[in-house]
Amino acid sequence: MSTSKLLRGTFILTVGVMLSRVLGLIYVIPFYHLVGEQGGALYGYGYVPYQIFISFATGGLPLAVSKFVSKYNALGEYRIGYVLFRSGLRLMMVTGIVACVVLYTIAPWLAPFVIDERANVNSINDVVTVIRAVSFALIIVPVMSLIRGFFQGHESMGPTALSQVIEQIVRIAFLLIGCYIVLRVLKGSLVTAVSVATFAAFVGALGGLAILIWYWWKRKDYLDDLLERDRGQVTLSLKEMYKELLLYAAPFVFVGLAMPLYQLIDQFTFNHAMASIGLGKMSEHAYSIFNMWAQKIVIIPVTLATSFSLTLIPTITKAYVERDQKSLRKYLNQTFQVLMFLTLPAVVGMALLAEPVYTAFYSHDPLGEQVLRWYAPTAILFALFSVTAAMLQGINQQRFSAVSLTLGLSVKLLLNTFLITKFATIGAILATMSGYFVSVVFNLWIIKKYTNYRYQFVIRRIIFIGILTALMSVFVAIVQLLLKSMLHYHGGTVKSIVIVAISGLVGAGVYFFFSDRSGLLASLFGNRFAFLQRRKEKKAVS
To answer: Which regions span the lipid bilayer (predicted)?
Structure first.
């Protein structure tokens, strides 16, 4: 694969992922105003089990198939990947249907773990209805994911990117229009509206699958031509193929399961723990803020930082395989620095502006402000976990991903109820932070053990980034205070947007300025910001 083609494919896929995630963020604003906190909690009750079942139904096979097909295509053994793909499609159909039936069937068993009927507004039957509505998507999504993996294995990223975007557009359109019709036109119940919202996952998957089928027929002649050119020198049984495939798939499963499993622990313990300290009446309101609305905002810097950082993982893999210790150290240094350079100021800025940020997205809510302020720092741990898990795969130590996740989840499970009873909603956040912290520390230790990597330089650089962030914070805090005073701020949406926009621009400008002046930008991003240097030189000459 040529470098230009690799870069083009990576760019297309990155753009597709980013567009899909941006759409997934934007829709929550009108969705919130349609269903409110109660509907948000109900939506989360259905969606979290669905995400876990998707991980088990696919088993990490789509990404593993991509790696498998790419490997044997490079050897000219095109038929092996095609045989595996056909077998994988049948397997995904079976696992998807089984997962759907199982989730639909056990919904009445899951619901009582979620709802405390003595205190919560939503009932057990409401939760059962919503879980069953989303279960139908399990029939389509595994098949769709495998086809995406097959195309990616053929170095074709366009089908995956476009199908992801179309899937999101169709899902969001169906979700918002469906909720609006149920609630505002038909005057139906909130449960029906949220059931329509979760069923939208099935409709969106149909849209994404339609795009992939169109691409398949469009590329069929090319794929048939590859089969004609098959060298036929390697013969593998399906058993041997799946054995190799499972080795590729395991790390994808564990990393993908992390956030849904943390959310599942909250889903099973949060309402009951809050009810035990007399806060049962407000627990669903708090749960929706913590596990749905605030979480959507916190994920923004994680998506941005990991998108930049993960592009360096292939170079880490190459340096490790070639035993190039100097390059490996350089790329590890750069990955950690880029991650912290992008995440730390975003997290601190979000915490400082928590009140207007939450109001700008949803509505003015003191609890929402408090939760977002405490939840923001977890973005650093989310990003570090994703990147260090990818690094473990890059140095061929992906088996430790399972150990890392298990340790983190154990900490979360042990602390969650106790901390919720002590600190209410903030307790759940502290338990999540503790779990991710343990996982990240373990990953960092494994990376050090198997690469002899030393963290001293990165620690010094992170301290410097922290100093720049502190400078930025001073300016943001002052600007926010001035704007609140000038606008006579009392939680209005428009005024919140103005405060966030101006404070954010000032903060970014200050941070960018000091990063450039200190040479940090050039150190991390090379000549990408060379135009700034040329501009300064021109000013000096004039």
So the answer is: 12-35, 47-70, 91-115, 127-147, 168-186, 192-217, 245-265, 297-316, 336-354, 374-395, 402-420, 426-446, 458-482, 494-514
CA angle centred on 363, ends 357 and 364, rounded to 5°: 80
**pLDDT tens profile 28-37:** 999 999 999 8
Establish if 189 belongs to a structural domain. yes
pLDDT(504) > 80: yes
Torsion of the alpha carbons at 301, 307, 308 and 312, rounded to the nearest 10: 140
Domain assignment present for residue 63? The answer is yes
What is the rounded distance in angstroms from the CA atom of residue 412 to the CA atom of residue 407?
A: 9
Domain membership flag for residue 460: no
Instruction: Among 45-54, 66-75, 300-309, 347-356, name the most confident range.
Output: 347-356
- Overall number of domains in the chain: 1
Q: Determine which of 18-22, 134-138, 256-260 has the lowest per-residue pLDDT on average.
A: 18-22
Q: What is the pLDDT of residue 252?
A: 65
**Distance (Å, rounded) from C-alpha 287 to C-alpha 269?**
11
- The total of other beta-carbon atoms located within 10 Å of residue 452's CB is 10
DSSP 91: H
> pTM of the predicted model, to two decimals?
0.87
Contact 193, 183 (CB under 8 A): yes
pLDDT at position 309 is 57
| Long-range contacts, stretch 69-76, CB < 8 angstroms, 24+ apart | 69/149, 69/150, 69/153, 69/154, 70/152, 70/153, 70/154, 70/155, 72/234, 73/153, 73/154, 73/155, 73/226, 74/1, 75/231, 75/234, 76/229, 76/230, 76/231, 76/233
User: Cα-flanking dihedrals φ and ψ of residue 500, to 5°?
Assistant: -65, -45
Determine the length of the chain: 542
Q: What is the mean pLDDT of the chain?
A: 88
Separation between Cα atoms, residue 253 and residue 61, nearest integer Å: 9
Q: Quickly list H helices, 156-293.
A: 158-180, 190-228, 238-276, 280-288
Q: How many CB atoms lie within 10 A of CB 104?
A: 17
Q: d(Cα 192, Cα 172) in Å, to the nearest integer?
A: 16
Span 156-180, average pLDDT: 93
| 476 in a structural domain | no
Residue span of the structural domain in which 17 resides: 1-236
pLDDT at residue 181 greater than cutoff 50: yes
Distance CA 215, CA 343 (A): 37
